[in-house]
């Protein structure tokens, strides 16, 4: 498995001959693309509204953070640049690489739209998540298997979220909306946000 991981990394990782536009695209995906998550969730809560989707996504992200932290503790894996493998064009601290937290967050976000929104935009978000995963390997801070692990954590997190939602989802949604209606009473009355 390590040999496959290494070979895939060497196929994906940036080289001195890589075109500048591809490097800039990868840097944009690494540095800016992840910011779409809070923006879309905020829009989905305040204006669309798709509040069940937002809450499920946040629960899945919470599960993902816990699972990723546990995997990182029990199965620590050093990053490629620590092993002196390939080229690194992105500064990063020496933390365990498996699974990728950025990849996990992006995959959970995309899977949330695929599983719970059932719209074509979920496919677009999955392409976006794959772009983030590719960019982190391309710029030398993650192994390909870190991204496979991130995807698996995202799947398990969504499964756990659906299970929790089947038990307590309706009451959790109702209570969350009550709090929202109280806190945002003025913007709701002025029709700045949806009820």
UniProtKB/TrEMBL annotation:
Catalyzed chemical reaction(s): di-trans,octa-cis-undecaprenyl diphosphate + H2O = di-trans,octa-cis-undecaprenyl phosphate + phosphate + H(+)
GO CC annotation: plasma membrane
Domain Phosphatidic acid phosphatase type 2/haloperoxidase: 53-162
Coiled coil: none
Listed transmembrane segments: 20-46, 58-78, 98-116, 123-141, 147-168
Presence of the UniProt keyword Transmembrane helix in the record: yes
This enzyme's EC code(s): 3.6.1.27
UniProt enzyme class: hydrolase
UniProt xrefs under InterPro entries: PAP2/HPO, PAP2/HPO_sf, UPP_Pase
Gene3D superfamilies per record: Phosphatidic acid phosphatase type 2/haloperoxidase (1.20.144.10)
GO molecular function: undecaprenyl-diphosphatase activity
Sorted UniProt keywords: Hydrolase, Membrane, Transmembrane, Transmembrane helix
UniProt protein name: undecaprenyl-diphosphate phosphatase
